[in-house]
Amino acid sequence: MTLLKRSSRPTRDPEGRMPLMEHLRELRNRLLIAIAAVIVGIVIGWLVFDPVWAVLKAPYCETAASQQLNGECSLVYTGIFQSFFTTLKVSLLVGLVLASPVWLYQIWAFVTPALYRTEKRYSMAFLALAVPLFAGGAALAYFIMDTSLGILLSFSLDGTVATIGIDEYLDYVLIMLLIFGVSFELPLLLVFLNIIGVLSHAAVKKHRRTVIFVMFVFGAVVTPGGDPLTMMALAAPMILLYFLAELVMYLREKRRPSTEDFSHLSDDEASPLAENSAPVGDPTPVGDPTPADEEPPGTDKR
């Protein structure tokens, strides 16, 4: 008696196509792997909380206001569970950073079957640039944080003592790191829009002054303290990266010229027509000298 063996796994489509339920199962499995990696990272973050917290608290300890309470760098907490949740939040942050190679790979492995070879190449290039740009923005925020805090806390009134809560300070640190990191990604977004044909270099050049002004306003609004130093520290690198993105867009369009660009025209100005274009409604094909109501020679009119 011959036993027929059935494969436990269905044959995989070479083009990556699969039924909806298979997509959902794959998404579930990859989410479980990513969550497990983050949980392991959180446990490690809990174990190394003390040195991580010392690094995060260092900018505040550089200010004179941190010594006012008892002569040492001190932060206060006013709730029973406040210190616990602060520890958990820092551990979660460490876990996300440590597990980032795993969950980034799971996202990439789930999305990549639907991408063409060119799209995969662009995606890898953008990911390779996005990570150091975010890290550079976060590093800049960390190095200017002590000066920014010193400016903000220098406005304390006479006879008052600064009692900064640990949750308030941690929120300030995380917001600064996140805002600076994400802001450094904006020039990369401009290059991406240029590659997919949504944004041209001429349009970016035309609105350059407006964009620079908006960057200064953005730096003043999104920074938690709102002090001039933090605003300038955020706006100046963004402007430099903006000019770098504009240069990349210019070199790309110069190396690979596209169709004729009419972005320099106003909204009420008509674009010029090609010399061999036919009038609207004329059935004569472009480049055909034979009129529509005249038959070509040699045609049988019977």
Tell me what you see in this structure.
- It contains 10 helices and no strands.
- The chain is mainly α and 302 residues long.
- It is flat.
**DSSP strand content:** under 5%
Order of helices and strands: HHHHHHHHHH
Structural class: mainly alpha
Number of helices: 10
What Rg, in angstroms, do the CA atoms define? 30 Å
- List the uncertain runs: 1-8, 274-296, 298-302
How would you state the average pLDDT, rounded? 78
Strand count: 0
Q: Per the principal axes of the C-alpha atoms, what is the gross shape? A: flat
Amount of helix: 55-70%
Largest sheet: none
Distance between the termini: 78 Å
Summarize the structure.
The chain has about 300 residues and is an all-alpha fold. It is built from 10 helices and no strands. About 15% of the residues are buried.
Map the helices and strands.
Layout: H1 20-47, H2 49-61, H3 82-98, H4 100-111, H5 117-153, H6 166-183, H7 186-195, H8 201-206, H9 208-222, H10 228-255
Helix pairs in contact: 1-3, 1-4, 2-5, 5-6, 5-10, 7-10, 9-10
List descriptors.
single chain, 302 residues, mainly alpha, disordered C terminus, 61% helix, disordered N terminus
